[in-house]
Amino acid sequence: MLKKSIVIGMIALVGLGTISKESNAFWGKKKSSVVKLQGSDTILNTSQAIAESFMTENKDARIAVTGGGSGTGIASKLNKTIDIVMASRAMKSGELKKAKELGINLEEIVLGYDGITVIVNKNNNIKNISHEDLGKVFSEEVTNWKQLGGRDAQIVVLSRDSSSGTHSYFKKVIVRNKDKSSKKEYGKNTLYLPSNTAILEEVKSNKNAIGYIGMGYMDPSVNALSVDKISASFKNVANKSYPIAREVYWYVDADRTGVEAQLVDFALSSKGQSIVKAEGFVPVK
C-alpha cells in the first residue's frame, strides 16, 4: 500500500476546510454543529476517509477528525469536548468507570482489525522473529542483531509514544508477554516517535532499526518480519493466527442521534467497511 502522508495534531474539517467566524457566512446564519472525532493515529486515515465519503453523500454534515493518540482521544471524551473516540486499544476499566461517573454512556464499536506489523530496514537479513525474542528486543534483553542471527550491530528500537494505544497494546502483549503480573517496560534506550509514519521513515533510513506500525501503513520501502513464522496478512489477522492481531475501535455515545448516529451506521455498512479494507485494515463485515 502506498504510504499516506498525514498531518497530526491540527484539527481539520475533513473535506470542507477549517471553521472560522468569517466562514459562517458560507453556511448561512444558522451555525450547524460539528461531529468531532479524535484519538488513534493508527486509524486516523481510515476515519478521515470514512468521514469524507459520508459527507459526500450528506452535504449538510460537518465532521472534524484529528489524531494525537488513543489516550488523547479518551481524555477529550471524558472532558466532553469530542463526540467519538478513535482507539487502537480497548478502554481501560478505570476510564470506563470515570466515563460512567461523568454521565457518559459509551458503546464500543469494533471498526475493523489490525495486525501490528514489525518492520526493519530493507538491508536487514532477518525475516522472522519469535514473539519471545521480540519482547526481549523491546525490553533490551537482546540488544545486538547478531543475537538473532543478523549482523554485529546495535539494535535501534523504535516505539510509539505513551499516548498511543498501540504503545500500550504492544507492551501488554509483547513486552510483558500477556503476563498481568509483569512490570517489564520498554528499554531505556528506546526512541519514542509520534506516529506510524515517523517510525516507518526512521526504519527506512536506519539499517539497524526495528519498529512497529499499523498494517495499513506498511509499504515496500521497509521489510515486515513474520512473528512466530506467521505474517501480518489479511487472512492471518482475520483469523487471529497472527500473534499481534487486534481490534480497532470507535467509542461512541450509546444514545447517539443525528449525524453521529448516521456516521456510525455508515462506518459499519458495506460501503464503510470497504473503506476500512481499502485503507489496509481487515473489515469486520
Secondary structure layout:
Blueprint: E1 12-13, H1 24-27, E2 35-39, H2 44-57, E3 63-66, H3 70-78, E4 84-87, H4 93-101, E5 106-115, E6 117-120, E7 128-129, H5 131-138, E8 156-160, H6 165-175, E9 191-193, H7 196-205, E10 209-213, E11 223-224, E12 226-227, H8 234-238, E13 245-253, H9 258-268, H10 270-278, E14 282-283
Parallel strand pairs: 2-3, 2-4, 7-12, 8-9, 8-10
Antiparallel strand pairs: 1-3, 4-13, 5-13, 5-14, 6-10, 6-11
Helix pairs in contact: 9-10
Short characterization:
This protein is an alpha/beta fold. The protein has 10 helices and 14 strands.
Structure explained in plain terms:
Helices cover 32% and strands 21% of the residues. It is of the alpha/beta class and 285 residues long. It folds into two domains: 12-114 and 247-283, D-Maltodextrin-Binding Protein, domain 2 (3-Layer(aba) Sandwich), CATH 3.40.190.10; 115-238, 3-Layer(aba) Sandwich (D-Maltodextrin-Binding Protein, domain 2), CATH 3.40.190. The strands form three sheets. The protein has a seven-stranded mixed sheet with strand order 1-3-2-4-13-5-14. Helix 6 (165-175) links the parallel strand 8 and strand 9.
* Largest β-sheet summary: 7 strands, mixed
CATH fold category name of the largest domain: D-Maltodextrin-Binding Protein, domain 2
- For the largest sheet, list the strands in their spatial order: 1-3-2-4-13-5-14
CATH superfamily descriptor of the largest domain: Periplasmic binding protein-like II
Morphology call: globular
Ranges with pLDDT <50 over ≥5 residues? Answer: 1-32
Compute the CA-based radius of gyration. Answer: 20 Å
* Total domain count: 2
- Count every beta strand, where a strand is a DSSP E run of 2 or more residues: 14
In the CATH scheme, the class of the largest domain would be: Alpha Beta
Q: What is the rounded distance between the termini?
A: 21 Å
CATH architecture of the largest domain: 3-Layer(aba) Sandwich
- Helix/strand/pairing class, anyone? alpha/beta
Number of helical stretches of at least 4 residues: 10
Overall pLDDT: 91
SSE string, helices as H and strands as E: EHEHEHEHEEEHEHEHEEEHEHHE
Beta-strand content estimate? 15-25%
Helix share, percent:
25-40%
